[in-house]
Amino acid sequence: MKKQEALARLHAIDRDLKHLSQVTAILQWDQETYMPPAAVEGRSEQLALLEGIIHEKATSPEIGNLLEEVGSTTANPRGDADLPDIERDFLRVFRKQYDRAVLLPADLVTESARAEGLSQAAWVEARKHNDYKTFMPHLEKMIGYAKKKAECWGFTEHPYDGLLDIHEPGMTEGAIDSVFGPLRTRLSHLVQRIGSKKAPRSDFLAREYPKELQAQFGESVMKDLAYDLSQGRLDISAHPFTTTLGPRDVRITTRYFPTNMLSGLFSIIHETGHALYEMGFADEIRDSSLGDGASMGIHESQSRLWENVVGRSRAFWKGQFPLLRQLFPTQLADVSVDDFYAAVNRVQPSLIRVDADEVTYSLHVILRFELERRLFSGALSVAELPEAWNGMIQEILGVKPDSDANGVLQDVHWSMGAFGYFPSYALGNLYGLQFWDKLKVDIPEAESFIEQRNYGPILQWLRTQVHNHGCRYEPADLVLKITGKPLSAEPFIKYLEQKYGQLYSL
Amino acid sequence: MKKQEALARLHAIDRDLKHLSQVTAILQWDQETYMPPAAVEGRSEQLALLEGIIHEKATSPEIGNLLEEVGSTTANPRGDADLPDIERDFLRVFRKQYDRAVLLPADLVTESARAEGLSQAAWVEARKHNDYKTFMPHLEKMIGYAKKKAECWGFTEHPYDGLLDIHEPGMTEGAIDSVFGPLRTRLSHLVQRIGSKKAPRSDFLAREYPKELQAQFGESVMKDLAYDLSQGRLDISAHPFTTTLGPRDVRITTRYFPTNMLSGLFSIIHETGHALYEMGFADEIRDSSLGDGASMGIHESQSRLWENVVGRSRAFWKGQFPLLRQLFPTQLADVSVDDFYAAVNRVQPSLIRVDADEVTYSLHVILRFELERRLFSGALSVAELPEAWNGMIQEILGVKPDSDANGVLQDVHWSMGAFGYFPSYALGNLYGLQFWDKLKVDIPEAESFIEQRNYGPILQWLRTQVHNHGCRYEPADLVLKITGKPLSAEPFIKYLEQKYGQLYSL
Asked: What pLDDT is recorded for position A351?
């Protein structure tokens, strides 16, 4: 077989696998948004069946032969040196997926997918009834499956490293620890200084904001940010998420609370950031494995950049506040744009990660990282987890959960078996501010564009620098390519110190 | 291999195939309800891929070997005589599916599935813009694929018979012609007699009925009819339909027109009838090929029985009208229950099949049957179709379409390649009234139950007599088993003559 034929066949297999994973995403999207409750068991069976089919296709010996044909091996994944760069990037990504897939036995894939469906349903119920005990056996199982998978893939230090690498290629527990250590120290110091100052007023945020009007404003912001509703939609789910259901089908969800209007809105901006990334892959890679985020952390850099760096800036609210006040004239009658900007950035150690402010947010992530690595080293059991959670959140943030629903049960991730995922959220903050510093060099007028609700130049820059490439570059290479520097926490810390120094007159 | 093991393996394959067809149904449901418009091409690719996977599994040589193991052949599909009855029924159905699948080449299955997605999208646009020409090439293709499939399966007279058998096992063009001939004569006579009488007032039906309130009443009726919302939902789509997405997930759709309140409501009742059938399969067959309607006509007997025989009866409106008037006090201020009952049953030859009254409805079906058989015999071309439609509807019903959108483009079926399907709608009327005559013998108080909005005894009778069995019996056998008589148009015609004789004082 000629090399070109082998490559074409690999691309065809890759496309089929991508389409099957989109089919899975459709079933999951439906499960989280519209599916009737009694359908949950049947849906688990369907998802398990699909996982099995995907695993069978992804581990077909044909792929091994084809990869060999183009010179791609585990040691030299990019294949023959005479291939075009884009094909070599594709082979690197595809080879890694293949190696990862062939090491997992089919029955482990099928079983864990079935368990995941049941676990998610149990989590929804447990959270609703604040009943950690009913979720415990599911969590136990999900950790068990994750450990088994990490063992199949192999790892150097301990199983947790094997899981981190899925979400953040090349990352290890040790490497994270060396960034999170100083981050924790500097953030704690900043939180303490802020805590000694008078908090800005935020009473008006808890007034009654009807859900329909919140939705209207959220959709207007989505459109301003150039989220294309002809290839996506906004729905309601228990936990906001972004999902890609097809090459031109990237959907987001949010949830609204009548007396907490910021939660629904910032979830929309956050998920819009993810969606813009997925919508922005170059056409030539959109329908291939290269049409994917470079890592979870890079993905999070996009969502958090739009949510915080843009969405919580003074310039953003100078542009949007007049529109918001038109929708809520009574609720915001006694509020100035500066009041609103200060309230949106109020720092307040709290229980819920997704509602946390920019300064304490990364501390929530560090908490989860600490617990996860103990769960996986065996130093902590599932039964001890709620107590460990409650103890550590008091230590780090000085708050005490009133219930497991607002504590250990608050996130969807563990119910899905997504361990080693949380660190990416904080890494996203770091990547994001490195990108932002470079963007401000290239677009010095960025702030005034934001003030005019003209977000196009920023999106255009991100499209060219980040989105278009998909996962052609690994995170470390991408950061170096864009900024000329390696990963660092400094830009993020400096940004926070400057912004909050001003807001709180430190 | 032991016979029991072969049977167990056949059931496992059957379940996987059923689950995969449910996955397809999920993708189609999403496409009709919530999918963003730009996603249509990607969705076609996904559906085509799934069709290919299903076809590959459904035609695996393993199945042929397993069927042989249990003595099931094309000539003796029910297999070895010592197997339990339910297993022999299963083998009959499964063997027929297998024989049908192995005769289709995989590339025909994949291609036609892809074309179907594009065709449906083109139909939606063509109907919206009243532009038959843009739909024509798609219709041409869908007919081509249907002919190719019929040729693969083989047929005795002409390709149309091969398509009829899919929807109504054992039915032929000749057999339908011999029932539709007299039906057309008797109905035409009835329509003429009614036409000479004064029409009841129906002005109030065209008043403004807000969609939200229509939805509220429709949902209340669904619940009264015991549609279980924990295993289903109601959504909006261009064309109402029922679809089964899982063993406990049967969804329906409708659409609302503010000045035509009957359309949305009777679509709900109709689709609820389909859904109650699907929800009513016995647990032991629910997750197997036996958990399916006995035929499209039997399915239609359920929907049309609830819609017309129950939903358009005087007793039904005696029970429901007070609730309807509570929701629409202004619109119905000058309307009595008898006015409403008469208006709901107003006979008026019209353009749109789904809005047709009980008397003219079957004539719409006969029109489509006549056109379909000519399209498939080659006597009529796709280019000539609109003219043939317009001519024949004038001949049969005396009305002239104002546009193709309200004429040849009104139904979704042809865009999906569902030829030979329409006759089942009229057969459903015939089956339904045969069942109803027997039900009234078994439950003489049926009418007073309906008046009290106590539909449980009727549902219970249908569950026991029809729903529980799924497709264990072929339609002809089922009719004989339940009523003791073969298929006949007499009960339906008598029912109409009596009901409308009274309504129009004939």
From this structure: 95
B232 in contact with A, Cβ within 8 Å: yes
DSSP letter assigned to residue A253? E
B140 marked among binding-site residues: no
Interchain contact, B228 vs A45, CB within 8 Å: no
Q: Is B34 on the interface with A (CB under 8 A)?
A: yes
Contact criterion met (CB < 8 Å) for A38 and B233: no
Q: Which residues pair with A257 in a beta bridge?
A: A260
- Which CATH number does the domain housing residue A492 bear? 1.10.1370.30
What is the pLDDT averaged over residues A189-215? Answer: 95
Do residues A125 and A204 share a domain? no
ipTM, two decimals, is 0.90
Residues B377 and B489 in one domain: yes
Alpha-carbon dihedral sign for residues A454, A460, A461, A463: positive
Which residues of A are catalytically annotated? 271
Contact flag A36-B232 (C-beta cutoff 8 Å): yes
Query: Mean pLDDT over residues B342-361, rounded?
Result: 93
Whether residue A351 is found in the same domain as residue A453: yes
Inter-chain residue contact B229 with A50, CB threshold 8 Å:
no
Same domain membership, residue A8 and residue A95: yes
Torsion-angle region of A398 (φ positive above 0: left; ψ -120 to 50: alpha; else: beta): left
Quote the number of domains for chain A.
Answer: 2
* DSSP, residue by residue, A3-47: HHHHHHHHHHHHHHHHHHHHHHHHHHHHHHHT--GGGHHHHHHHH
Residues A149 and A291 in one domain: no
A150 with A190, same domain: the answer is no
Q: What is the mean pLDDT of chain A?
A: 95
The DSSP 8-state label assigned to residue B198 in this structure reads P
* B25 near A CB under 8 A: no
A442 within a domain of the structure (yes/no): yes
Active site residues of B: 271
In terms of domains, do A67 and A197 share one?
Answer: no
Q: Is residue B165 part of a domain?
A: no
The answer as to whether A372 is a domain residue is: no
**A288 to chain B nearest CA, in Å?**
13
| Count of A-B CB contacts under 8 Å | 100
- From chain A residues 397-436, the ones with a CB under 8 A of any chain B CB are none
Q: Does residue A386 carry a pLDDT above 70?
A: yes
pTM equals 0.90
Range of the domain at A486: 173-357+419-503
Handedness of CA A445, A451, A455, A459 (dihedral sign): positive
SS3 of B475, please? helix
Regarding whether A305 and A452 lie in a shared domain, the answer is yes
Residue B364 annotated in ligand binding: no
